[in-house]
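Lecture notes, continued. The same structure-token format from the folding unit now serves as the input rather than the output. Read the line below as a description of shape only.
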């Protein structure tokens, strides 16, 4: 019995870290963030997403080996590609509901060669700001950009003990392989812009892109349901319908 308990204990200590692999549609992982709680990553076949609305690329990274970057209209840093990078409004990110929780959705399209189709993402940070042209990433206990950002979500492989590997399983440079869902309640409606900072390794080609769709890809593939509008939005819609009904009745008279 003692030997069995010792074996179980040894296996527990030898168990690998929480390894998340996204290499097919429907793969799901939970990122344990140090800030902002948990985020969801979902595998998606970008080849079938042509009908979910216009895609807007807001962050493009291209380098070799280890690379990082973030979106801004200001001076770009690290391996950020200026021509494929732009500010992102919070309102540009589609909303979706999963397991009763509302999220904003961001999509990742990687571009690897066939020799090694995997990229390891080691860090994901989301900020909000009112200044779309920020530059000057500063690391530390509370990372920031230009001392003008609110930290919304922060995940790292080192802090969480997790790994996140994404496979370029959908051919084509602009096809999406992964969705990132961040809780909508973590965002401040008073701050207009979202900044995504990413660190990754094993890159052998590129460019790798982060995009938002006109509507939710998560809903389109059946992993989520449409988000219910906020009460104030419903009130505005009701008021608008009331006005339209009044005008219609007037015309009928």
């Amino acid at each position: 019995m003692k030997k069995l308990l010792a074996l179980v204990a040894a296996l527990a200590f030898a168990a690998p870290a929480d390894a998340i692999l996204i290499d097919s549609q429907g793969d799901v992982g939970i990122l344990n963030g140090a800030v902002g709680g948990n985020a969801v990553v979902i595998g998606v076949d970008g080849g079938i997403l042509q009908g979910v609305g216009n895609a807007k690329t807001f962050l493009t990274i291209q380098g070799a080996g280890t690379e990082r970057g973030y979106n801004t209209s200001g001076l770009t840093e690290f391996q950020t590609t200026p021509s494929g990078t732009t500010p992102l409004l919070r309102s540009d990110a589609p909303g979706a509901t999963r397991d009763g929780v509302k999220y904003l959705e961001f999509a990742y399209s990687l571009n690897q060669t066939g020799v090694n189709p995997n990229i390891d993402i080691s860090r994901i940070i989301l900020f909000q700001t009112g200044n779309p042209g920020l530059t000057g990433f500063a690391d530390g206990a509370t990372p920031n950009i230009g001392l003008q950002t609110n930290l919304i979500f922060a995940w790292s492989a080192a802090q969480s003990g997790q790994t996140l590997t994404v496979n370029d399983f959908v051919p084509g440079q602009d096809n999406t392989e992964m969705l990132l869902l961040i809780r909508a309640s973590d965002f401040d409606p008073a701050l207009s812009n979202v900044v995504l900072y990413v660190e990754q390794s094993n890159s052998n080609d590129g460019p790798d892109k982060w995009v938002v769709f006109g509507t939710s890809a998560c809903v389109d593939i059946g992993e989520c349901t449409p988000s219910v509008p906020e009460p104030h939005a419903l009130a505005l819609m009701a008021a608008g319908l009331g006005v339209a009904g009044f005008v219609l009745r007037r015309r009928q008279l």
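Point for the exam: The mean pLDDT is 85.
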